Amino acid sequence: MPFFKKPLAGPGYIILNVLQIINIIGLLAVIAASAVMLVKTFVVSKFFFFDAVSHVITASIAAFLIVSELSLFQTYFARNWPLLSHSSGFVALGTAMVFLGVSLLGNLNKQATSQKSLGLPFWRIVISSGILILVLGVINIISNYIFRDTKAHVTAREIRSLGVVAAQSRSASITNHGGVSAGSPKPYLLNRQNTLPSYHSHTEGRASPPRLPLKISSPINFDRSQFQKFERSKTVARPSETYHPVYSEKF
Asked: In terms of Cα–Cα distance, which of 196, 84, 79 is closest to 140?
């Protein structure tokens, strides 16, 4: 249930688009901070390989989230990453950003990425990026619950893209694709007749099924003589006793 009514859809369109730009800036800051720590790790740390891999993964996740925020490859995200797709909210995005912020700030406890190793300017870049992305993650999660409309099945991301016409667009899309409209029963409450297609033609004047028991007539033009050769003869000749095994010679 949304915290506010429909009038927030208009301001939400502006607020969420501004927040989208800030999200991209924060994710770019994460990539920059990861690059700084990656370079310093090679210089200071003895076990630089695993630290370097962790920084590369952090930067890759940030770049992946930037692509999702720019609405690129919408079909790919809808098919493989539905929580980051156009029809989803900001909970997954905000949670990922919180983890990125925690990861950046956690690296500051290491010797290779400490203030002494990085230097004050680069240390400020890392700590500011971690705090910024952490705060943005929380803001995205909160804004998801503020601007969504559960009754109209409209997410905060759709409000960001379509504004006040998001509800009408969702209703039209549901009507065209035969989906679940607002106020209709949930898919898991529908019975078999409502969910599965029927392959029977519903034409008028359909013939009713025959009643049991069925009465089957005899074959037409039945000729009994054609079966006489298969009948047993009434006079059967008895074979000669000379052929009996008792009278046969034993060798």
From this structure: 84
Q: Which two tokens stand for residue 139?
A: 């803001």
Q: Residue 68 corresponds to which amino acid?
A: S
Opening angle at CA 218, ends 215 and 219, nearest 5: 135
Q: Report whether 133 contacts 97 (CB < 8 A).
A: yes
Q: Give the pLDDT confidence score for residue 222 in this predicted structure.
A: 59
- Tell me the C-alpha distance between 152 and 162, whole Å: 14
Specify the DSSP class assigned to residue 220: T
Tokens of 179: 């989906």
Q: What is the pLDDT of residue 228?
A: 64
The helix/strand count (H/E) of the chain reads as 9, 0
Whether residue 141 contacts residue 10, with contact meaning beta carbons closer than 8 Å, is answered with no
Question: So what's the pLDDT on residue 168?
Answer: 64
Which amino acid appears at position 152 of this protein?
A: A
Residue type, position 133, single letter: I
d(CA 123, CA 76): 37
Which tens digits make up the pLDDT trace of 170-227? 655 555 555 444 444 444 444 444 445 555 555 555 666 667 776 776 666 656 666 6
How far apart, in whole angstroms, are the C-alpha atoms of residue 153 and residue 167?
8
Under DSSP, is residue 231 helix (H, G, I), strand (E, B) or coil?
A: coil
CA neighbor of 115 nearest in space, from 208, 187, 105: 105
